[in-house]
Specification:
Chain lengths: ~850, ~525
């Protein structure tokens, strides 16, 4: 009896936490154990005679001599545009794998403008001396300075470079003397501000992309993706490092050390020590420097910013149609329906289940008739089955990952025995991408407008392999899997992106959603946070993770609304829909064994609240679309943590349940507990930054944390004073049908009577904005009673129609922790009495509308 | 005759409604765009417009000016300006419809008359109401025919159902009567039995006394023998003859090596000494002997203890103890044996001492009483059987087979449905099940619960609940949607929620007059 109940307890525990038997901690990984316990010691010094650098190049080279009989290393230090340096260290005759696909082109060099070689150090500078790198010979280290202050130190005493037959681990240390708090190193389910790790305490943060069921909160365990970028941020400076390496890594982190700085210890299993040093000196600049290296997302098609409905699975085409028609008849907005694996014939991708999806074109036509889209899942594992053309072709063309002995790898996944595309091989990407063509994917039409790439860590159902490909598996050119493991998903989405682009003759922006990802994945795909759980804590985790991803270039982020595993309460559903509306990607999804939870199935009162939440999303579509455009120009995040926008407010460093949408909308997600009637909200920016509620008449000053009342109907949402928020207040059934609708402007003027905003318009579908400047990017500037509309960029023939201006003037200024209030005026005509909506904005480069 | 009359009424309804519809078409009442006929009078161009919620009065020119004045949206019936507005399409030739105003001029044709899309020149919506109307009428006709045919069958079903009910009721009356009779017989037989048993008892009293005495004597003899045996053993064990049996004295005897490890440990010895280090004769006889004896017997190959189960010690102990007790009690009823070291062979079952033979007179009384007892048992069984049958019928009569007993004849039948993986079975008023095609284990998806359709027609849906539990989940349950058709047939089975099944069952029993749109329209007009 005792034994039985013990067993039940074990099962119940397993059901809600990750499988630590399968996924290793540092103690079970040799190179991590060895490096982690190593006492720092200066094993290398620079051979001063070997130093070579000059002002007509951007590269310094030197030899690092081992002080204990190891092999010599070559140090290469390059100056790059954008306040960036690059450090490479490898054996003199290195055969280490160097990543080919991650960077968005070769980084632009920047020649040294000064080189000072001394007896015990060498200093190079760029950008008129404002960026410096000083290499000290012995003990070896490198100090990187910005405008005279040391921002990043590459610690020589943490440097190790080893090589054996199987692995070739290396390590190094980084110190941010000005960085009070560390951020970055996505993807982990953790607080935004990184935890301190260390022997005896928390394990180091791990990177080894893994399909982790029931992943845990506040954990350094590896998840599906890897972005090895670390920021050290403090009130005086922000800097960062990017380890350009796709092997398994472990990172030990300490913030707020005794010197008020922070430090990290990087340990990697194999591959090249290739580090970009980003000198900021603030969060905005450092993120821009990083996205300069790995690229930005292109604009998404407009419909992808609407609401998406998914489930594992809509089992039949009738079920799918039924869901769509219920969204319409119950007045819920919907842009796309998603099909999980069961639509396929026996999990053979690019096929349809002949009994349950016998008429895929009919389904797509039904969706198209109400301007909706279909997205289907396509995974990287290929069912081993002679006669399945995708398999046959890949086998014949030698496009699968191999075992160490050269035979084709086969492992279990959804279809049973499967082989895995070798996406490192450009021919495999080409082949797989071509499967998306309308010819190769029979039953697909343009209504199948996007692709969902899942299981691409890649997932192999074999616990002894940590649920993925064997580390000694082989890719093209005999590259070992362990050398590129973390970019497998990245390469998968690269193939899909290229395939969709080709399918539509380059005329439509591909839409891909992925689970696994790497630095630079933003160029090809949106991503979601994987298999989360229907619990309040995971609602908070969704916000934390998307905020983190957004400062790492991966802007198009979302989480399964409602939580994938288990059943949410109605209240949690309401709050999740409210929070999800303020994350860039907005999709509900749920596991097979959960109760059906399409919003129209909930009680009427919950439906009303969810309807409101989804409509809030659609009303703000112009805000989202404009932010995505601005991201393509700058790399700036779409949603932002407070510290990013208000870097000096140390009290906000740990606030990670609030979302800044751009600079102008502040949202407090309600994830704390059931039945919340009031919550702490942090209002940033100081006394003169005023926040005006968009849902009540509450007005607050940016003086920090304060308790505010919370209604069931919405999460606290505030507009920044001085901002012009552009909305579309007529909410149609989907984004397509809102295309021609006019806009409403909301603003509160600053003390000097001004307000500012931007809006971006284009066709919402094609690349003409990029290739032909077919767009319009407009600045909106309020000055007293005049509103001027100035075209900043773009030659597109797009009219910006405003039918209404909602002016909110502060009636009572918030004081002493008390709420202020505002008075609202709605303006529909200009000073001449003409209706605003008849004024042709955009026809001239600059137009001033007088309101009085 | 009756059917014919109904049919006639039905088609005359069609006739009248289409006449009235054409009247609407020809005499269009002037009203703002998107306003229904019934509300036309609220929009008077001669007067200012009062929002329906009385919140505001606005000049009439502001009605449908594409700017939302009224919070309830009533000033913009024909545009999409108000978030909660309603657009009415007349849809002459088909059904009128109310549309959310956000669908006006959104590029999708929602109204069949195309009236919701007038502002964009990129889209023209053709008027397809006549077509749709015709289609709808044809569909209604088809349904009507189906209902007609179904109702015919249903009438038969109901007749059969009512007949069944009548039969059951009649049977019930008969059974109640039979029950009375059977109970009377039972009482009679009881009386006879009681009398004869009294006589028998009296006659047997003397024999019982004799038997009791015999039993007592045997028990005493047995106790004495047991004591004698124990004493003998005590003397044998007490090798140092100090009047106590001690641990060391037991340790020399392999019999007590309980765990068979080759030596008798102190613990083992203590176990046999009732957890003491040494005991005297009296204690040995009363406390230790019951533990020791089975081992001696086992040693002699006379008795096998049950296999010990280490995992569940408490249970195993209990078992062992019980059996040991049982084994001891009867031992001395047997004749004493000759060998001193060999205890007698215990019997498998305890046997009552053979009754003393009765004299003829007594035997006669016993036989008569036995006969009366048998007669009474028969009478009692007869009553029980009738009661069971009555209960069955009452259960049946309590079941709701529909207002006209139309579902009654489905009881006792089962209907199969197979998809690619399973064979589902619906046995109305009993259960729903699922059988994998590749297996033989049937899973119960639910047992008859109740009708659970909506209030206006609860016979639309059946609930079968309390089925087998899902692994790590709830108990299975199924709903059966019951729809009109000319055959009895399960037409689909799905699992819309985990462990919640939905059957669709077609039966003539579900055919009833449809509250048709035609009727609605008629009423409205």
């Amino acid at each position: 009896m005792l034994i039985k109940s013990l067993l039940i307890i074990v099962l119940a525990t397993l059901a809600f936490s990750a499988d630590h038997g399968t996924f290793k901690d540092c103690a079970r990984v040799d190179f991590c154990t060895n490096l982690r316990t190593r006492t720092p010691s200066d094993d290398y010094s620079v051979d001063s005679g070997s130093v070579s650098a000059s002002t007509d190049s951007n590269t310094l080279t030197a030899t690092l001599k081992s002080n204990n009989g190891g092999s010599d290393l070559t140090l290469t230090l390059s100056g790059l545009q954008q306040n960036t340096f690059r450090v490479k260290i490898a054996e003199v005759d290195s055969t280490r794998y160097e990543l080919q696909d991650v960077l968005d082109g070769e980084p632009e060099g920047l020649n040294f403008d000064d080189v000072q070689i001394g007896d015990d150090s060498v200093t190079v500078t760029t950008a008129s001396g404002s960026n410096s790198a000083t290499v000290t010979f012995s003990p070896f280290n490198i100090e990187f300075g910005k405008d005279g202050a040391t921002e990043v130190v590459f610690n020589g005493d943490r440097l190790t470079v080893a090589n054996n037959d199987v692995t070739a681990p290396f390590s190094f240390g980084i110190t941010f003397p000005e960085g009070l708090q560390l951020y970055g190193i996505h993807e982990h389910c953790d607080s935004l501000a990184l935890q301190n790790t260390g022997p005896g305490g928390t394990d180091p943060y791990r990177f080894k992309n893994s399909d982790v069921a029931f992943y845990e909160l506040n954990s350094p365990m590896a998840l599906y993706g890897a972005v090895p970028v670390l920021y050290g941020h403090g009130p005086t400076a922000t800097a960062g490092v990017f380890l350009h390496n796709a092997a398994e890594q472990w990172i030990e982190t300490t913030s707020n050390n005794e010197d008020g700085g922070s430090q990290a210890y990087f340990m990697a299993e194999i591959g090249t020590l290739d580090v970009f040093v980003l000198l900021g000196p603030n969060p905005i600049e450092v993120v821009r420097q990083y996205t300069k290296l790995t690229g930005t997302a292109h604009l998404p098609q407009l419909w992808t910013l609407g609401y998406h409905q998914s489930r594992y699975s809509y089992e039949t085409q009738d079920d799918a149609k039924d869901v769509v028609s219920n969204f319409d008849s119950n007045n819920f907005q919907l842009d796309a329906l998603w099909l999980d694996i069961d639509y396929t014939d026996a999990y053979k991708y690019f096929t349809w289940n002949p009994s349950t999806y016998s008429d895929p074109v009919g389904l797509q036509d039904t969706l198209a008739s109400t301007n909706k889209k279909l997205v289907t899942i396509i995974d990287p594992h290929i069912k081993v089955e002679a006669g399945y053309s995708v398999y046959d072709g890949a086998l014949a063309n030698d496009l699968f990952v191999k075992n160490a002995d050269g035979s084709v790898f086969e492992g279990p996944c959804w279809p049973g025995t499967s082989s895995y595309m070798d996406f490192l091989n450009p021919a495999a990407r080409e082949y797989y991408g071509s499967m998306y063509s309308y010819d190769n994917f029979p039953g697909s039409t343009p209504t199948l407008a996007g692709t969902w790439n899942d299981m691409n860590e890649p997932s192999v159902f074999d616990n002894s392999l940590e649920m993925t490909l064997p580390a000694d598996g082989l890719h093209i050119g005999n590259v070992r899997h362990r050398e590129i493991h973390n970019i497998y998903g990245f390469l998968h989405t690269m193939a899909t992106h290229q395939g969709l682009l080709a399918r539509d003759n380059g005329e439509r922006r591909p839409f891909v959603l992925t689970r696994s990802h790497f630095a630079g994945s933003q160029r090809y795909t949106a991503f979601w946070t994987g298999d989360n759980q229907a619990d309040w804590t995971y609602l908070h985790a969704a916000v934390q993770e998307c905020l983190n991803a957004n400062i790492l270039g991966l802007v198009f982020c979302g989480a399964d609304v409602g939580g994938f595993f288990n059943n949410p309460t109605n209240e949690l559903m309401e709050r999740w829909y409210q929070a999800g509306a303020w994350l860039p990607f907005y999709r509900a999804h749920s596991n097979k064994d959960t109760n059906r939870r399409e919003p129209y199935l909930l009680p009427e009162d919950s439906q009303a609240i969810i309807r409101e939440a989804i409509q809030t999303r659609y009303k703000h579509l112009p805000v989202w679309y404009t932010l995505f455009y601005e991201h393509t120009r700058t790399g700036d995040p779409i949603i932002r943590p407070l510290f990013y926008q208000y870097p000096e407010e140390t009290d906000a460093y740990h606030v990670d349940g609030q979302i800044l949408v751009g600079t102008d909308i502040l949202v407090r997600a309600v994830y704390d507990y059931s039945g919340a009637t009031d919550l702490d909200v942090y209002f940033p920016g100081g006394e003169n930054e005023v926040w005006i509620s968009s849902t009540s008449d509450d007005v607050r000053a940016g003086t920090g944390q304060i308790n505010v009342p919370v209604a069931r109907e919405n999460s606290p949402t505030y507009y920044r004073r001085g901002a012009v928020i552009v909305r579309k207040d007529t909410v149609r059934p989907n984004t397509v049908e809102m295309t021609d609708d006019s806009h409403t402007l909301y603003y509160t003027v600053n003390e000097d009577n001004t307000a500012h905003g931007t809006v971006y318009l284009d066709d919402g579908v094609s690349f003409k904005y990029r290739d032909d400047s077919d767009f319009k990017y407009i600045s909106i500037d309020v000055d007293g009673d005049n509103v001027s509309f100035t075209t900043i960029d773009g030659n597109g023939d797009y009219e910006f129609v405003v039918d209404k201006i909602v002016r909110r003037d502060i009636a009572n200024f918030p004081k002493g922790g008390k709420s202020g209030s505002y008075k609202e005026t709605v303006i529909t005509r200009d000073a001449n009495g003409d209706l605003l909506k008849n004024i042709k904005i955009g026809s001239t480069k600059n137009l001033i509308v007088k309101l009085k | 005759m009756e059917l014919f009359a109904r049919n006639f009424k039905f088609s005359s309804l069609f006739l009248s409604s289409s006449v009235i519809l054409s009247v609407i078409c020809t005499s269009e009442v002037p009203r703002p765009r998107g306003v229904s006929l019934s509300r036309a009078s609220l929009y008077n161009p001669e007067r200012n417009f009062l929002c329906f919620d009385n919140s505001k009065t606005i000049p009439f020119v502001q009605v449908n000016d594409d700017y939302c004045d009224c919070p309830d949206g009533s000033d913009e019936p024909g545009t999409s300006a108000c978030p909660h507005g309603i657009f009415h399409c007349t849809n002459a030739g088909h059904k009128p419809m109310n549309l959310a105003s956000s669908r006006v001029n959104d590029g999708v044709c929602d109204c069949c008359d195309g009236s919701d899309e007038y502002a964009r020149n990129t889209i023209t919506c053709p008027n397809i109401c006549m077509q749709l109307g015709r289609h709808a009428r044809e569909e209604a006709q088809r349904m009507a025919e189906l209902v007609k045919a179904g109702k015919h069958l249903k009438a038969e079903l109901s007749q059969r159902g009512m007949q069944l009910k009548e039969e059951k009721k009649e049977k019930l009356v008969v059974l109640e009567k039979n029950k009375e009779e059977a109970e009377r017989v039972k009482q009679e037989k009881q009386q006879i039995k009681d009398e004869l048993e009294a006589a028998e008892n009296k006659a047997l009293e003397i024999y019982r006394k004799m038997e009791d005495e015999e039993k007592k004597r045997k028990a005493e003899a047995e106790a004495a023998k047991n004591r004698e045996e124990a004493t003998e053993t005590f003397v044998k064990f007490d090798s140092n003859q100090d009047g106590f049996v001690e641990i060391s004295e037991l340790q020399t005897r392999q019999t007590f090596d309980k765990d068979k490890n080759g030596e008798v440990s102190v613990e083992e010895a203590r176990y046999f000494l009732n957890n003491e280090d040494a005991i005297d004769l009296e204690k040995f006889v009363t406390d230790a002997w019951p533990n020791i004896k089975p081992y001696l017997m086992m040693d002699a190959g006379l008795f096998k203890p049950p296999v010990t189960q280490e995992e569940s010690p408490s249970e195993a102990d209990d078992l062992q103890g019980d059996e040991a007790d049982e084994e001891e009690a009867p031992q001395d009823e047997e004749e004493p044996d000759e060998g001193e070291d060999e205890p007698e062979q215990p019997e498998e079952a305890v046997e009552e001492p053979a009754p003393l033979p009765y004299d003829d007179e007594t035997q006669k009384l016993v036989d008569r009483a036995t006969f009366a007892r048998n007669e009474f048992a028969d009478a009692e069984r007869a009553v029980r059987d009738i009661e069971a049958e009555i209960n069955n019928i009452q259960d049946y009569l309590e079941k709701d087979f529909g207002p006209e007993e139309e579902f009654a004849s489905l009881q006792g039948e089962c209907f199969d449905y197979s998809d690619h993986e399973y064979i589902y079975k619906l046995c109305p008023f009993e259960k729903t099940t699922q059988l994998p095609k590749s297996g033989s284990m049937e899973t119960r998806l639910g047992s008859w619960g109740r009708w659970d359709g909506p209030e206006d027609n609860k016979y639309e849906s059946m609930l079968y609940d309390k089925g087998q539990s899902c692994w790590n989940g709830p108990q299975r349950s199924s709903k059966v949607k019951v729809v009109c058709g000319v055959t009895n047939e399960v037409t689909s089975v799905t699992e819309p929620n985990r462990c919640e099944y939905l059957f669709e069952f077609v039966t003539p029993a579900a055919c009833r007059e449809i509250a048709s749109d035609v009727d609605d329209l008629h009423d409205e007009l």
